[in-house]
From TrEMBL:
Gene3D superfamilies: 3.30.1490.190, Winged helix-like DNA-binding domain superfamily/Winged helix DNA-binding domain. It holds the Pfam family FUR. It comes from Alkalibacterium iburiense. This is Fur family transcriptional regulator. The lineage of its organism: Bacteria, Bacillati, Bacillota, Bacilli, Lactobacillales. The keyword Zinc applies. The keyword Zinc applies. Keywords: DNA-binding, Repressor, Transcription, Transcription regulation, Zinc.
Length: 149
C-alpha cells in the first residue's frame, strides 16, 4: 500500500468516526488534496481541479467539504499575506503544524518540517502559565529560484 492509499484510508476513517460518509464529492476533493499535497491550494483552485474530474460538482459543495475536513483537523486552513485561504493536509496527528517559507516575489510556499520553536513554547508555558495548543510561523523572503534570477 502506498502513502496515498494509507492517507486516503486515514481520512475515510476520520470521517467515519465523525459519523460522516465519504460521498463521491468528498472523495474527489480528498483525491485532489492528496494529489496536490505540496501545493497549498485555495478553495477555488481545488474546485477547478475537482470540476475537471466531475463537471457536475458545485463550488458550494467543495467549500462545505473543505469546512468539514478543517473542522475534523484533516486539513488546515492557512491564510498568508495575499489574504487567500489555502489548505494543507494534516494527517500526522502531530501536536504542531509545520512552518512555511513564503516567497515575496513569486508567491511560492515551501514547508519547513522541523518544529524549531518547541523550546520557546516550553518557556512560554512556564513563564506565563499559558498552555500552548499550536503555533504557526511563516518566514517571508525570496526563494532560491527568484534569488538566482
Amino acid at each position: 500500500m502506498n502513502n496515498l492509499d494509507s492517507s486516503f484510508k486515514l481520512i475515510k476513517k476520520k470521517l467515519h468516526e465523525a459519523g460522516l460518509k465519504l460521498t463521491p464529492q468528498r472523495e474527489l476533493t480528498v483525491e485532489v488534496l492528496l494529489e496536490k499535497e505540496k501545493d497549498h491550494l485555495s478553495a477555488e483552485e481545488i474546485y477547478m481541479l475537482v470540476k475537471s474530474k466531475n463537471t457536475g460538482i458545485g463550488l458550494a459543495t467543495v467549500y462545505r467539504t473543505l469546512e468539514i475536513l478543517t473542522d475534523l483537523e484533516i486539513i488546515n486552513k492557512l491564510t498568508f499575506q495575499d489574504g487567500i485561504a489555502r489548505y494543507d493536509l494534516n494527517l500526522n496527528d502531530e501536536k504542531h503544524q509545520h512552518h512555511h517559507l513564503l516567497c515575496l516575489k513569486c508567491g511560492k510556499i515551501e514547508e519547513v518540517k522541523n518544529d524549531m520553536l518547541l523550546e520557546i513554547e516550553i518557556e512560554i508555558e512556564k513563564e506565563y502559565q499559558f498552555t500552548v495548543k499550536d503555533h504557526r510561523l511563516t518566514f517571508h523572503g525570496i526563494c532560491r529560484n527568484c534569488s538566482a534570477n
